[in-house]
Design brief:
Keywords: Heme, Iron, Metal-binding. GO terms for molecular function: electron transfer activity; heme binding; metal ion binding. With 401 residues, the chain is of the alpha/beta class. The protein is built from 16 helices and eight strands. It has three domains: 214 residues, P-loop containing nucleotide triphosphate hydrolases (Rossmann fold); 79 residues, Helicase, Ruva Protein, domain 3; 76 residues, Winged helix-like DNA-binding domain superfamily/Winged helix DNA-binding domain (Arc Repressor Mutant, subunit A, Orthogonal Bundle), CATH 1.10.10. Helix 6 links the parallel strand 3 and strand 4. Helix 6 crosses helix 7 and helix 10 crosses helix 11. The radius of gyration is 23 Å and the shape is globular. The structure holds adenosine-5'-triphosphate and magnesium ion (MG).
Length: 401
């Protein structure tokens, strides 16, 4: 089929041609937006799941939903070793700019921008050198004595309260979206939870919507025990059969192309319903199929190409981020996580990894911690680790050492 018209989109954060199987999350979020805008108590949403299940594209879709209701929105992607102040400044600047045209009092908007600037300038603390100093692109003089204490928790509460008051004036809200939320520092997570807690008690219309790896709820509750009551966790998983068929079928139909039932059977078997894999197999199959309807044979012919691209783009690129010691650790994990009959890699006790490598558990902690920090593995339960990347164990087991 014409590769130019190929609708599928494998890739990090790539908007899929059809966002399948996420109706429930979208409905829940609509209710959250409506309730928060009316000052009703409501928990915010945190999306968790493995790599490539579609957290980022869902987060972006939720953001569009908020913008559709005239909310002010901003988004950040957390990174390890980066403090929250600067990205939050940028995101809230964006949110306020979205609200400003609907606000009747430009002076009040400028006042809040002044508070935002004061908050932002604190990002330069400890940066003595003039040329390293960051100049936030906010065209008003900084306010004094608000959101500029240097204590991130106090400053976030003050900034959020003022920003939310603008949204109250226009009858909507502000949503701050945080991707890769597990990468926030403990101090920042704790400050963020405290600020959200405070804001929800005030009934102020500002919410934080997060997305991250499966251990994100543990990261949040380690910072603040009440985080479970603050956020509603939505586990984003692989697509069920019906949703996977829609993800493939709807975009094809728009191009006048159909699938045989056996082709869809085989595609689901190969992709396991993981959204990234659905897109990758869909794309390769489209390019190889000579005509509509697409058959199971077309899928068979195309599969090696899809697997080759996944090996490079999805698995290989991540494996390359690991040092030799970390790779050894993951190979041992892969051997131990082999669970025939189960499509998913099982979690592995760290003690077993130590035994299989003939090492003392403590000597492996640096490799384990570094892999967690790189987002390649996570510890869902104490004393165990699992891959964040679906089918990663299977991929490693096929790689020559
Ligand atoms: N609901 C869906 N239906 C069809 N395809 C989807 C769906 N969600 C995501 N995808 C596709 O899956 C791929 C991965 O999506 P995305 O980058 O959002 O995943 P992620 O969970 O953020 O991964 P990571 O943890 O690596 O950041 C993209 O190619 C996207 O188009
Ligand atoms: Mg993502």
């Amino acid at each position: 089929m014409d590769p130019v018209r190929n609708p599928y989109a494998p890739g990090a954060g790539q908007r899929p041609p059809e966002l399948a199987g996420r109706g429930r999350e979208l409905d829940v979020f609509d209710v959250v937006l409506e309730r928060v805008a009316r000052g009703r108590p409501e928990r915010s949403l945190v999306l968790t799941g493995l790599r490539g299940v579609g957290k980022t594209v869902l987060l972006n879709t939720l953001r569009s939903a908020a913008i559709g209701r005239l909310w002010g929105t901003g988004k950040i992607e957390a990174r390890p070793d980066q403090s929250l102040r600067r990205p939050v400044s940028g995101a809230l600047h964006m949110a306020i700019r979205e609200l400003a045209p609907h606000h009747r009092d430009p002076d009040r908007v400028d006042e809040v921008l002044g508070v935002l600037k004061a908050f932002a300038l604190r990002a330069n603390d400890g940066n003595a050198k003039l040329r390293d100093r960051w100049a936030p692109g906010i065209d008003v003089p900084p306010a004094r004595g608000r959101a500029d204490s240097g204590d991130i928790e106090i400053d976030l509460v003050e900034l959020f309260t003022d920003a939310a008051s603008l949204a109250t004036d226009v009858g909507t809200g502000i949503a701050l979206f945080i991707d890769e939320m597990q990468d926030l520092s403990a101090t920042d997570v704790s400050a963020l939870c405290a600020a959200c807690h405070e804001l929800s008690q005030l009934g102020a219309p500002l919410i934080v919507v997060g997305a991250g790896l499966p251990h994100l709820p543990a990261v949040l509750s380690a910072a603040k025990s009440y985080s479970e009551r603050l956020f509603r966790y939505a586990r984003i998983d692989r697509l069920d059969r019906d949703a996977a068929d829609l993800a493939l079928g709807v975009p094809a139909e728009r191009e006048g192309v159909e699938y045989d039932q056996e082709a869809l059977d085989l595609l689901y078997e190969k992709s396991g319903g993981y959204p990234y894999f659905v897109q990758a197999y869909g794309k390769a199959t489209w390019d190889h199929a000579p005509q509509t309807p697409i058959t199971a044979d077309d899928v068979r012919v195309a599969a090696p190409e899809a697997e080759g691209e996944l090996a490079v783009g999805f698995f290989g690129s991540r494996f390359e981020r690991a040092t030799p010691a970390e790779r050894e650790y993951m190979r041992a994990m892969a051997a131990l996580s082999d669970d025939p009959g189960n499509d998913m890699d099982a979690a592995v006790p760290t003690s077993e990894i130590a035994i299989s490598l003939g090492r003392k558990p403590a000597s492996l902690s640096p490799a384990r911690d570094a892999l967690i920090k790189k987002g390649l593995i996570y510890s869902g339960e104490r004393g165990t680790v699992a891959f964040t990347v679906p089918h990663f164990g299977r991929y490693l087991r096929t790689q020559p050492v």
